[in-house]
Amino acid sequence: MKYMLMMHAPGKVAYQVASWAKQDLQAHMAFMGNLAKKLKASGEWADGQGLAGPDQAVIVRAGKDGRPVTDGVFPESKEFLAGFWIVEVPNAARAYEIAAEASAAPGAGGAPLNMAIEVREVQCAPPEVE
pLDDT value at position 54? Predict the structure, then answer.
């Protein structure tokens, strides 16, 4: 089963890394890199990326003529999607374990960030639709 783990950060927390001490940023990036290596080694990794900040987010809808209509940017968001992982695991319990590990990534001063990680199963289209 595939699950998407979405890291939600409060306000601009994840994008304040520029103000962190160099060793804190290095520890955070090492943690994320090691998590990716661990998931790849176990065969559970499908994909994962960090995302640009909310100050670059734009919502797009189709206008009446089908052309894109944009809204945004949203730099004052209460929370924002900071990054994601797609994992392939046997059950939701394992996805929750990985999410908890990711949530504990170190932040400034080495304290765990404990960011919310939303876990959702990736749905497949029924065979007759594919």
Answer: 76
Range of the domain at 89: 2-50+76-121
Is residue 130 included in any domain, yes or no?
A: no
130 pLDDT above the threshold of 80: no
Please check whether residue 89 lies inside any domain of the structure. Answer: yes
Residue 21 sits in a domain whose CATH number is 3.30.70.1060
Specify whether the CB–CB gap between 102 and 119 falls below 8 A.
no
| 32 assigned to some structural domain | yes
How many Å apart are CA 58 and CA 68, to the nearest integer? 11
pLDDT tens for 27-80 read 999 999 999 999 999 999 999 998 877 777 788 889 999 999 888 666 566 777
Q: What pTM was computed for the model?
A: 0.81
Least Cα distance to 105 among 24, 6, 3, 18 occurs for 24
Residues 6+ apart with CB under 8 A from 27: 106, 110
What beta strand segments (E) does the chain contain?
2-10, 45-50, 58-62, 68-72, 79-88, 116-121
Does residue 18 lie in a domain region? yes
Q: Which of 112, 111, 113 shows the shortest CA–CA distance to 82?
A: 113
